[in-house]
Known about the structure:
Keywords: Aminotransferase, Pyridoxal phosphate, Transferase. By secondary structure, this protein is an alpha/beta fold. The chain is built from 11 helices and 15 strands. Pyridoxal-5'-phosphate (PLP) binds next to helix 4.
Amino acid sequence: MINVTKTFFPPIEEYNKQIKRAWDNQWLTNRGELVLELEEKLKQYLTVSNIIITTNGTIPLQIALKLLGNNGEIITTPFSYVAGTAAIVWQNSTPVFVDIHPEYLTIDETKIEAAITDKTTAILATHVFGNPCHVEAIENIAQKYNLKVIYDAAHCFGVKYKEQSIFDYGDVSTCSFHATKLFHTGEGGAMFTNDTNLRHQLFYSHNFGHNGPLAFHGLGINAKMSELQAAMGLAVLPYMETIIAGRKKVINYYNGYLDFSKLKALKIRENTHWNYSYYPVIFETEVQLLKVLQQLKEYKIMPRRYFYPALNTLHYVSSVPMPISESIASRIMCLPLYVDLSEEELKKISQIINTSIC
Length: 358
Ligand SMILES: *Cc1c(COP(=O)(O)O)cnc(C)c1O
């Protein structure tokens, strides 16, 4: 079976070496030595000035929305993983959807202003598949209307835009270290901000609001990463160059083999140093996509319809139609992408796709 992704497992001895440190310290959580070391190493790897690592990539969205969303209307994208929209509703805020750009697949910045009302408090946009949103235009709109900007950068490990980490953009940026993501800690995530005051708020919010053992800065929740998770991160991190190079090879293969007369690949925004995190292909029709899925399934190849459905169609939200997102969501899927896919497997996948669409 070939799945859309395969979790990277570091050599078990290297994981054991890290996990043994937790045994030696007799310390499992509350920002122990491993969590602190992983934060330092990630800061260097990602070239960011600060990071707070967390137990998953969804709770940073909830914390950011809690601090910045003010229970208002949050402008967001219908084309993303459900975590963002769900977090908005979960925080008792209201998602207001803005359709996406048909090629970059990120929120269409030219349509944001029309969706702003006097209840709008923030924009929550996703850098889809590691492809940056138009961050400058969004920043200008946010300044003009006094809105906060939160980026769901779950897919963006290592992405740079204009030579700067993509996590540096927006008031808060978040990442996921879930087992299916480029860099992982099993479950895990991170939040980033360059605002000192906001960083303080994010930090205490992720640890019950504590200010020492007996006092509290304010309201908080538990989003702390454990030493067990950090051990995995410390064992995976040294392999990132290998992982990214391996994925680049797979993507170059697809780029060379697939028949793009009837298919479209993702258009990466200019000035982006991308991370090869996903390989979405867009078919001309949903019928074609379903036919390809069926064919691949016969060879036990399981791509994923990612993202489907468009989030504005979730039954717990209300929205006007989002024609571009709904259309793309019905015609897009992510092809298998992981380090040790063989040329033979890639050839088979590409041939099946090319023959089913012709
Ligand atoms: C994976 C993902 C999340 C959620 O992250 P978890 O670590 O699984 O909580 C949020 N947004 C997007 C776009 C994702 O792909």
